[in-house]
Design goal:
Layout (H helix, E strand, L loop, with lengths): L5 E2 L2 H9 L6 E9 L4 H14 L6 E4 L7 E4 L8 E5 L4 H11 L10 E9 L2 E9 L5 H17 L22 H21 L17 E8 L2 H14 L3 H18 L4 E10 L16 E10 L5 H18 L1 H5 L1 H9 L7 H11 L4 E6 L7 E2 L2 E10 L7 E8 L2 E10 L4 H18 L3
Parallel strand pairs: 5-6, 9-11, 11-14
Antiparallel strand pairs: 1-4, 2-7, 2-13, 3-4, 6-7, 8-15, 9-10, 12-13, 14-15
Helix pairs in contact: 1-10, 2-4, 7-8, 7-12
């Protein structure tokens, strides 16, 4: 990115415009043991901002008027840092606030940090970004760099912005080959609509997307259960993502079907970094696409059978390059929903109608690098995205230090809290019963 910046790509523009009608933030939280001073964290934030170009941008129209929106690097202030104190469970409220609160587009930056202290040696660091400039894996990389600087005094060389995801798609996703894959994807979804029906999901209240707020119901399983679940998953040849998604879909099916069979659907983020040209290594940016699963759930569907089906569906999508090839459909859907001429609220409503009643499951992997940094030791890591603002009930899982965390992300007031807690309890029971002899 040169001194003048660059225009937003079609996908970046869609994510930016949608966020004025429904939050598109992501937050990553790391709990730390050890001495972390405000000064050390401030210096670390300055260091990572100097390293990554997208941490130094604002969004403004080209020419300062009504032109195309662009990333502008000039005059962006330091990454905001709020230091708070709170009890053991106060982080849930803070994370809910962070994934809902907007960013100052015209001044930037599009990242911020909260330091929530529970005691002199106990704190949580929370990084929040907008999806137009980052994703969950980027946030995890950023957290690692932040703690390397704060805990070890590491020096980080600057990186270049090598362009947005939709300008770096692999050859198989471009030209006639990409068009063929997109056509196959659309025909597959139409066939699913005809043979399976739209995914079922029971809402308590019909509320437009801009009036929804993402809430978090967290749970962290102990080491003994996590070990048993991982051993069973290994024997069944399924992933943590697969079994977590299966538990979510079975709970939704039982809730929506009232004892009958039900169609359920799940969208899962796929990391495109290795496929991009050039590949995305240590860069911060939005480098994901979605793999979509749909299945008719019978009352006697086994969790492990469903988990294998989810895993196989994801493998097929990756083998055919469906996620990369269909990413441009986001920009096309943006135009079909009214594009620049529609209000953010109308855009969010039309996007939600185009992908009705689906759930999502994101699993944060590759967290082993978040261990000890000097005198700072990471105790827990988890992330949450405001996906439910677009109509999804979502699960967010993370495996760290031998313990599985499972967040249920749900839209209030579309769901009553009692309804959401019942779903979360059903998911936990489904996972626990899956390893019970």
């Amino acid at each position: 990115m040169d001194e003048g910046g660059r225009p937003l790509s079609p996908i970046e523009k869609a994510l930016w415009r949608l966020s004025d009608g429904a939050s598109m933030n992501f937050s990553l939280m790391a709990r730390l043991r050890g001495p972390l001073s405000s000064g050390a964290l401030r210096a670390a934030l300055d260091a990572v901002q100097a390293r990554h170009p997208l941490l130094r941008v604002r969004i403004a129209s080209e020419g300062g008027g009504a032109g195309a929106p662009a990333f502008r690097p000039g005059g962006v202030p330091p990454l905001p840092l709020r230091e708070l104190e709170g009890g053991e469970d106060s982080w849930v409220e803070r994370m809910e606030e962070e994934i809902h609160r907007g960013f100052p587009w015209e001044t930037g930056p599009l990242f911020r940090c909260v330091l929530l202290r529970h005691g002199a040696q106990d704190a949580r660091v929370m990084l929040t970004c907008h999806h137009a400039v980052s994703d969950g894996l980027s946030a995890a990389k950023l957290m690692q760099e932040l703690l390397r600087v704060a805990g070890e005094g590491a020096r980080l060389p600057p990186l270049e912005d090598r362009g947005p995801v939709d300008a770096r798609l692999p050859p198989q996703a471009l030209g006639a080959a990409g068009l063929t894959l997109r056509l196959r994807f659309v025909l597959r979804e139409l066939w699913r609509d005809r043979t399976l029906g739209r995914p079922a999901f029971r809402l308590d209240h019909d509320v437009p997307p801009h009036e929804r707020r993402t809430r978090i119901t967290p749970h962290r399983f102990d080491e003994a259960f996590t070990s048993a679940l991982l051993e069973r998953a290994r024997r069944e040849r399924v992933t943590v993502h697969g079994v977590a998604a299966a538990a979510l879909l079975l709970a939704v099916a039982r809730d929506a079907g009232a004892g009958q069979d039900a169609t359920v659907g799940c969208a899962s983020p796929v990391d495109l970094r290795p496929q991009l040209v050039p590949p995305a290594g240590e860069e911060v940016g939005f480098f994901v696409a979605m793999s979509k699963f749909r299945r008719r759930i019978r009352r006697d569907t086994d969790l492990w059978v469903l988990a294998r089906a989810i895993r196989e569906g994801l493998k097929r999508d990756m083998a055919t390059r469906f996620p990369a090839a269909t990413l441009p459909l986001v920009a096309r859907l943006y135009r079909m929903a009214g594009g620049d001429g529609a209000s953010p609220q109308e855009l969010a409503r039309r996007f939600a109608a185009a992908t009705p009643n689906t759930t999502g499951l994101t699993h944060l992997g590759g967290l082993d690098a978040l261990g000890r940094f000097g005198d700072l030791e990471v105790q827990e890591v988890q992330g949450a995205a405001a996906l439910s603002a677009l109509g999804r009930l979502a699960g967010a899982t993370a495996l760290f230090r031998g313990r599985l965390s499972y967040f249920l992300l749900w839209p209030e007031p579309s769901l009553d809290r009692s309804h959401a807690e019942a779903l979360a309890g059903d998911i936990r029971r489904g996972l626990q019963e899956s390893v019970t002899p």
